[in-house]
Structure formats: structure tokens, C-alpha cells
Amino acid sequence: MSSPIEPLLLVIAYLVFVYMGPKWMDSRKPMKLQNVLVFYNFFMVALSAYTVHEMLLGGWLTSYSLSCDQEVDYSTSPTAIRMASATWLFFIAKYIELFDTVFFILRKKQSQVTFLHVFHHGCLPVFWWWGVKAVPGGFGTFHALVNCCVHVVMYLYYGIAALGPDYQKYIWWKKYVTKFQLAQFFIVTVHNSQFLFRTCAYPWKYVAFIQGFTTLIAILFLNFYVQAYRKPKYLQIKSQRISNGVLSNGHEVIGHSNKYSNGAAVNGSIVANGYCRSELKRRPLYS
Question: Which residues are annotated as catalytic?
């Protein structure tokens, strides 16, 4: 891709599908894509792990330092080529990851297609075209390395989950995935903060852009995390007061209750919009 036109056109096509896809699926049944999802997620694990491997051997485990004086090596040395190739792989992965959204829409999981999800997936292909063209290495690739590590864990979780209910016991660690995703923002911010205290050899404008986008995504991510993980807890607390249809004050629950949104208290669990809030399985967020 020699110009930004191709990335922009692909992102526009992606956004058109995000808008039109749900309308097209409206009269259709959700597609069963279990085998596709298993292959896709484990492929992304392998791709992310390989990119981590190449970035480590291309600099971060050999000649690179964490200092902001780590400039881009524009030479044709083997390590410079290796790092540039790794950043190119990371760039290509941003296009493959657009299928995250495609699969959500085809499976009619529209609740997963949030503003955060679409904004994040839609911006990165264009931004990383610029990154690969201008700075294919050096200090600025640290955040890509961290992100790839997160994606190894995240796609591994989704890959195992896609195998079916019999494999759920192997993903007991799912509650840590989102925390790992959140931790990456902190790690990248600490690394970038060197530019506030010293003069660095690496171009500051690229770090400013990386940190600006990281901060924006972190804010959106934290807001989504609070909405999805923290606020519903009050329903869980209420559900503990209800046991087998009997409230703690001794009044029996019969039928529906106007105290809850489109639901009722059933067997000690508050039901909202057809789902038992106390039994909802939280999913890691995409990043």
C-alpha cells in the first residue's frame, strides 16, 4: 500500500458494513460460525505471538533499550529489516482484526459492536499505515509489542471459549484478561512519560500522537468497563436478598415486578431483558 488511499477505502468499506450489516441480518438467523471462530482466534494467537517474537529479536531483546533515545534504524541491516517486517505484520493484523466486527454482526451479537470497538478498529489501519511508512522501528514500537502480548492472551481466551461449553473450565482466568488489557495503557503511558522530563532522540511528535490516541482509547475503555462490569453489581447485591421467589421482608414475588427493567425475580436472580443479571458471564473487552 503505497498511499493512504487504500487503507482509507478499506476502512470506509468496513464502516459501511458496520452500518448496513445489521440491517441485512435483521431478517436472517444468526450464523453459526464455531469452526470459523476457532480457526480465526487461534490464527490470531499465532500471528500475535510471532509478531512478539520478531519484535523481540528485531530489537527489544537484543539491541534496543527502554530509553526514548532509541531511534529508528533505517539501515538495511538484518535486525533493522526484521523490526521493519514485524511492524508491517502488526499493520496487516489491524486489517485482519476487522473480522472481529464482521463475526459479531453475522452472529447478531450487536451489543458487542460498541462505539469503542468500531472507533478502535476503524482508526488503527490508517494510523499504522503512517507508522510503518515513517517510523518502522525504534522507541515507538514498544506500544505495539505490549499490544501484541495482550492480543496473544485475549485471542487465546476467545479461541478456547469458541470451542464450546466443555472447555469453559480451562478459561477460569478470564476475569484477568480485561485487567491485562487495562494494564497495557498504564505500561505504555509510563514508557512514554520520559518525554516530559528529558530531551529525547526519538521524534517527539510520534510519541505525542501515540500517547494521545492511547489516552483517548483508555478513557473510552474505562468508561465501557465501568458501565459493563461495575454498575450492574447493584443488581447482584439485590439478587442476594431474594431466595426462591421470596423477598427478604417475607413478601412473595409473583409474576413480574415493576421494580426491575422488563423482568422479574426468579429463583433468587434478577432477570433483566431476558438475562439473569447475577449469572451474566462477563466477556473481555477488545483492544
Answer: 120
